[in-house]
């Protein structure tokens, strides 16, 4: 039962943090930020907030520093909006899983291209493995 409560609270926190970061935290240094997931402790006192940014590494680190400095304001807004008895302590972490997905996708694409070149096929050829019917007309 407690596990479901933690999951529901985590999802509510993720949605509300997205709203707070988008609408209430008016700091242009943050840029485009997305709250990807929230991991809550069982007692709901600590939350790891995973965020992703649409920027390069340097800007990402600067944005994360701004979020960490605004942690008190964000926690207050969160407590007010969700009416928790105790708002969780927030720890902001960069979620680079989307970059990993892109990197893995590119590697798989390269492997597929190398494999098809090694077999003498062009990537756009249909190699379904079924023999083509010979209609006899030439």
Topology summary:
Layout: H1 2-24, E1 33-40, E2 46-53, H2 57-69, H3 71-82, E3 89-94, H4 97-118
Parallel strand pairs: 2-3
Antiparallel strand pairs: 1-2
Question: H/E element string?
Answer: HEEHHEH
Q: Count every helix, treating DSSP H or I runs of 4 or more residues as helices.
A: 4
The main sheet orders its strands as: 1-2-3
CATH topology of the domain at 2-96: GMP Synthetase, Chain A, domain 3
Mean pLDDT: 83
| Poorly predicted segments | none
What does this structure look like?
This protein is α+β, with helices and mostly antiparallel strands. The protein has a domain at 2-96: GMP Synthetase, Chain A, domain 3 (2-Layer Sandwich), CATH 3.30.300.20. The protein has 4 helices and 3 strands; from the N terminus they run H-E-E-H-H-E-H. The protein has helices at residues 2-24, 57-69, 71-82, 97-118; strands at residues 33-40, 46-53, 89-94. The protein has a 3-stranded mixed β-sheet, covered by helices on one side. Strand 1 (33-40) and strand 2 (46-53) form a beta hairpin. It starts with a helix and ends in a 20-residue tail after the last helix. The model has no long low-confidence stretch (mean pLDDT 83).
Keywords:
3-stranded mixed β-sheet
